């Protein structure tokens, strides 16, 4: 059975029509995704966890990406989907109240991967999650991710801006993460455990 996605309006509200994921990407139909950036404070700096997408991914294989992200299946919602992706991709059991909403992003792009056209048209809800856990302690989903790695946030922003690491990260989204951590309390949340 194919993975079904709700077609949505520009605010991420379902229109009542659902299509297989392959159709959404072949035709560039607007659908929803949840993006979760995992952050921690270490050695006086804020770090962000990036995943390395495996070579079999249908888009951007072998690139650094958001800590955890995924399409929202038809009938599901942003938060529930974000929590499920964290569990499936990284083995992290978080609660809805652990997710800090950073905003909504809309974007479209077209590319070619594995010799096929790929049209992406997304409405994404962006979240941050404080979690201090070593990279090797995450239980990564090997069919999706090769490994995860912590980067100092400022270093990650610079590397994405300058293109010094292979990535499929939107600088605007890392900017949302930076804005969140600058507003977050320096005490309390940084030590939260979510698993």
UniProtKB/TrEMBL annotation:
A single BP term in Gene Ontology: isopentenyl diphosphate biosynthetic process
GO cellular component: cytoplasm
Boundaries of every Nudix hydrolase domain copy: 29-173
A matching Pfam family: NUDIX
GO molecular function: isopentenyl-diphosphate delta-isomerase activity
UniProt-listed PANTHER family: ISOPENTENYL-DIPHOSPHATE DELTA-ISOMERASE (PTHR10885), NUDIX HYDROLASE DOMAIN-CONTAINING PROTEIN (PTHR10885:SF20)
Protein name: NUDIX domain-containing protein
Species per Swiss-Prot/TrEMBL record: Subdoligranulum variabile
């Amino acid at each position: 059975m194919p993975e079904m996605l709700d077609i949505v309006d520009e605010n991420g509200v379902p229109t009542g029509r659902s299509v297989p994921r392959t159709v959404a990407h072949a035709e560039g139909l607007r659908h929803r995704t949840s993006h979760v950036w995992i952050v921690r404070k270490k050695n006086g700096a804020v770090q962000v966890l990036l995943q390395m997408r495996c070579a079999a991914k249908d888009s951007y294989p072998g690139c650094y990406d958001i800590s955890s992200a995924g399409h929202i299946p038809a009938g599901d919602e942003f938060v529930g989907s974000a929590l499920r992706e964290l569990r499936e991709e990284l083995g992290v059991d978080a609660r809805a109240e652990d997710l800090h909403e950073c905003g909504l992003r809309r974007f479209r792009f077209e590319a070619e991967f594995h010799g096929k056209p790929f049209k992406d048209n997304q409405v994404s809800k962006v979240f941050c999650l404080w979690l201090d856990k070593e990279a090797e302690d995450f239980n990564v989903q090997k069919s999706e991710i090769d490994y995860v790695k912590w980067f100092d946030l400022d270093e990650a922003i610079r590397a994405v801006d300058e293109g010094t690491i292979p990535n499929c990260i939107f600088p605007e989204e890392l900017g949302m993460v930076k804005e969140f951590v600058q507003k977050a309390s320096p005490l309390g949340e940084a030590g939260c455990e979510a698993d």
